[in-house]
Amino acid sequence: MDLNALLTSAGINIGISVALISLYSILRKQPCNLSVYFGRKIASERVRRLDPLCFDRFVPSPSWIVKAWETSEEEIMFIGGMDALVFLRILVFSIRIFSIAAIICLFLVLPVNYYGKEMPHKQIPTASLEVFSIGNVKEGSKWFWAHCLALYVISFSACILLYFEYKSISKMRLGHIIESTPKPSQFTVLVRGIPRLSGKSYSDTLTKFFANYYASSYLSHQMVYRSGTVLKLMSDTEKMIKSGCCGGSVNAFKILSSEETVKENVKEIARFADLGVASRYNECPAAFVFFKTRYAAFIVSQVLQSSNPRLWVTKLAPEKNDLLWSNLCLPYRQLWLRKIAILIAAIVFMFVFLIPVTVVQGLTQLEQLAQALPFLRGFLNKKFINQLVTGYLPSVILMLFLYTVPPTMMLFSTVEGYVSHSGRKKSACLKVLCFNIWNVFFVNVLSGSIINQLNAFSSVRDIPAILARAVPTQASFFMTYVLTSGWASLSCELIQIFPLFCNMVKKFILRIKEDSPNNLTFPYHTEVPRVLVFGLLGFTCSIMAPLILPFLLIYFILGNLVYRNQILHVYESKYDTGGQYWPVVHNATIFSLVLTQIIALGVFGIKRSPVAFGFTIPLVILTLLFNEYCRQRFYPTFKQIAAQVLIEMDRRDEICGRMEEIFQQLHSAYCQFALTSPDSCKAGNINEGDHKIQDPEAINPCVKLET
Amino acid sequence: MDLNALLTSAGINIGISVALISLYSILRKQPCNLSVYFGRKIASERVRRLDPLCFDRFVPSPSWIVKAWETSEEEIMFIGGMDALVFLRILVFSIRIFSIAAIICLFLVLPVNYYGKEMPHKQIPTASLEVFSIGNVKEGSKWFWAHCLALYVISFSACILLYFEYKSISKMRLGHIIESTPKPSQFTVLVRGIPRLSGKSYSDTLTKFFANYYASSYLSHQMVYRSGTVLKLMSDTEKMIKSGCCGGSVNAFKILSSEETVKENVKEIARFADLGVASRYNECPAAFVFFKTRYAAFIVSQVLQSSNPRLWVTKLAPEKNDLLWSNLCLPYRQLWLRKIAILIAAIVFMFVFLIPVTVVQGLTQLEQLAQALPFLRGFLNKKFINQLVTGYLPSVILMLFLYTVPPTMMLFSTVEGYVSHSGRKKSACLKVLCFNIWNVFFVNVLSGSIINQLNAFSSVRDIPAILARAVPTQASFFMTYVLTSGWASLSCELIQIFPLFCNMVKKFILRIKEDSPNNLTFPYHTEVPRVLVFGLLGFTCSIMAPLILPFLLIYFILGNLVYRNQILHVYESKYDTGGQYWPVVHNATIFSLVLTQIIALGVFGIKRSPVAFGFTIPLVILTLLFNEYCRQRFYPTFKQIAAQVLIEMDRRDEICGRMEEIFQQLHSAYCQFALTSPDSCKAGNINEGDHKIQDPEAINPCVKLET
């Protein structure tokens, strides 16, 4: 590939992106697409309508870019939550570090690479891209100090930026916790593995245990019921009511069953539960236990309760909206087996995934394709088709296969038994990240080089050299990957192809007029790994093939605008991990840095530059030490909340006299079923239950009360 | 090596061991050796004298064996503490599992090995040992099911035994905690990283913090002082007293300074500390904080106190006797760096250790030795000397070098910054264990085989095959290792050569009559790794070369008796980890099992037995799953104590009305300096301070009060 081709490809992709973005700026102004591009607003405000047909609606405009640019961090935090802010911080961090990298690499490393071999150069536009990579510097050259210096500058800048980001995010997290309105989840502990005592319900056992050991702080509790049995109970009640009140008259029942029967029904169920008649058989060995203070709840969640570690397992409860009810009833004893099984399954998936991709990609070798499908032979012989098939098809196939990965990983995380949406999403994010690093980076690097993939890792000591040989040659692939996959993914994200298509079908084929919000939450499990993998490509290619950096910078800047816009308008924030993604980002960045340094070691070794080699070793050690320091300094605050903070928050609420109000809310905070009866859910959360959520802010009474 | 030679060697070693044991049974009856062989009794009872000169004193007798055999677990627990019991349990476990292994391997595997190749055998006594190893079974033989079956039986028995041991030890640990008399350490939290506020002493800052956040449970505290400055303070006080009371008369002071001055001195220091005149400059940012209940102390120790994780770092305090005062003043911020530095140092030590050993062992190649020291040439040409030098010298040199390892590792653990003797010893134990497994097993296995040591591990996938080739050929070396190093180490342990020698010098050269106890504590950091490495040899050789098993069994049985005797008579138990060694033992045993299975995989692969190979893979997985299960089920109780247990203990003491008494003890429990003044250490622990400990049971007031 020569520079000309690269620039052409860049031009085409820029053209496509600009076109798609302009298309977006038109589409978003159409009232029929309101639910696609303003899902969050519909969900929260319900009423907004755009102005009627006018000329302005069909002219592309950059207004959304201005709006996205101007949005402050406070607004993002308010609208998208802590996680959205952390996600945007990844982009900002990437922009900063790759600006530094671009400056030093384009002005120092690139000339060294270009003039590395004293040979007559072709005209720059037709020069092969390899001329710009480190492969062009001759062996034993004294100019490797430039690469080493650039590596030092990049590593140090990255560490300094990472340090300040970690510091500011943990400070923000703390502030977010301190300033948040009282949430039921802060006072609630999820207890699992309640022991079964003969002749006693789980509820009784639990009451006895907590009233005995935590008499001073225990408030009440809410059992978790098996949803299957409760549904049965509900239908039983329905039948009972049917035969009781309505005396066999089916018609009468049908008329009644609109509003009042449901209420009756529900009261009956509540009465059932109260009487304990049926509950004993429907209770799971899990419950939400409410405490009088945050500190008490936190203490209970941190400490081993019983000398059998698999009984009375406690952890702080997720928020109501964050709960994955279906996993709450899983027996706690199973979880470790599930975790191991899923770990193995994920690893197997990572390797097995290669097989169909390789087979299908092999088919795109034209000869095989022509052999397999002889009738295409004439068609395939055309030059344009030929180029298209060999050039684009492999990466399109890879892309299509890659789209199956996040749902699979999400499924894995569900089976693993997470009890919160946010925890499940974070776990899926980690899995997708590992998968992408393996499949986008390593598999491409190693299959591109001469060495057989599976043999590559049998020899541990040769890995740096293998990577060092492979990465510069694969740099042109990574550049096109950034151009196509990166920029295209942003345009697709903006246009929301799939929801747009669904909306079209609904509006123009099914003729449904009403705008129902689609309740999308931000797909951290696909976007965080995507951005981090581009970061990995940027670091590893920076001193090897600096030409990638400008394209990456454009990706990150555009990404920053696009994701800001999406967070503002499209996605709802129903649940939040409180910034738990940052430690993942930090570790992934350190991994990328160390990998870069190891590859540099390999390159300096191959190119016989002992000085640069020697200077890089302390850099690896310093980077690892820095990581350990951050792990000591910041990570504990992401795992635990400091006692001091919790006690202060409790005191503040006590002084404000808000405690009574909070206790009131607690009773109804974790109602499991969609009850419309105000009797059973006292504090007025009317539309509860997962499948009835329509207004996410109406669910959390605290948000409604105080924001 | 043939069977004859092995049996001769065994005979010689049995002879030596019997002789040494008989010698021991005589030596222990000599009154002059009382302090060597009855150190613990001297320390605790002080008065016992053996009967005067009689004939019986010079006749070997097995009475100590009977006594050791009859000692019950309760006695061991009472005398040696939980750790001693755990250590003996390792031996009992080893006896059990290797009895099973010996039965199945000698009666099933050994005949299969011996008749493996259909070749005319020599007479059994002159047959090479290789005939008895798995190497003798021909490729593709159908008899490998026997080895596979034996492996299954051994693995399953080991897992079942491990499970019940873990269960019973965690139960014992719990019982030990519940039934123990109230200890000050249970109510005390060691706080480090107290922040420095301008114009305030650490003590004031601490009081303010705990009185604010833990008002209901905070009792008092005791600062830690820099010992250097306090020594200076003490000498200053001495001078002051000298110039004050004694008016410049040096002689008068000298007379006075026997008893009374010391008391005065100490009162003065105590007054100094009380007045806070000097204390501000001598305080470390560390303190012991006392709480009203065990539960409160435990909670404080478990929870992150401040949102800066390196301030207010809390953990449960070790017991007074267990404290390593010198490490208490280390700044907490340094510790992570120390840990990393020591980790690197230990790894470097493991590899660098090979160099002198190889060099010196190389010298024992006779030609080089004769060249280096030409005057020895005539001497070395004699056959007996030749055999001695080539046969014994290498292993003697290895042994001598190995003796330097435990002190080095102990030094490493000290530098690492452990604040308790027991924690330091456990950490040293882990280091020595890794070192021994590496140096005794892997280095010998891999240097004995053709493959170069350093290249061996560059190829990950070939490791099973390499080990499979090497282990059977090294089996004869391991057998002689068990005979010499194992049995000899037990005899040496029994005779206590070094203390005996010191005692001889003291009694017969320096002519000191008095028996002072030598205050030895059980060297877990050398003995636990030793026993575990023999276990590793037993597992890995079991199906490869079953002849090793009888020798190992003798070692474990003898070891059980010898160590029981030593715990009863020689070693004191000044401090205790409460059974924390068992998780180490469990993990090491699982490691040995999995290594055995991997080597078996390698052997079955080389010998082309796909069925046996296929059946071994699930065994590896099952073993790892079993380990994970145990980690889930038992390990948490070794890390934390359950809240339930602590609350019950607190209630029991409250009901008994013992709380006041306990609080009284707390005030004086952690006095840092050897004070003889009853004013400053109120509860009557008169002989405090590390260098003055004479009677360990007098130190812990609770033990004295209640046992």
UniProtKB/TrEMBL annotation, chains A, B:
Alphabetized PANTHER family for the sequence: CSC1-LIKE PROTEIN RXW8, PROBABLE MEMBRANE PROTEIN DUF221-RELATED
CSC1/OSCA1-like cytosolic domain span: 243-327
Protein name (record): CSC1-like protein RXW8
Protein's organism: Tripterygium wilfordii (Thunder God vine)
InterPro entries: Csc1-like, CSC1/OSCA1-like_7TM, CSC1/OSCA1-like_cyt, CSC1/OSCA1-like_N
Chain ranges of the CSC1/OSCA1-like N-terminal transmembrane domain: 5-165
Keyword Ion transport: yes
Family, per entry: Belongs to the CSC1 (TC 1.A.17) family.
GO cellular component, one term: plasma membrane
Membrane topology: Multi-pass membrane protein
Compartmental location: Membrane
Keyword Acetylation attributed: no
Main location: membrane
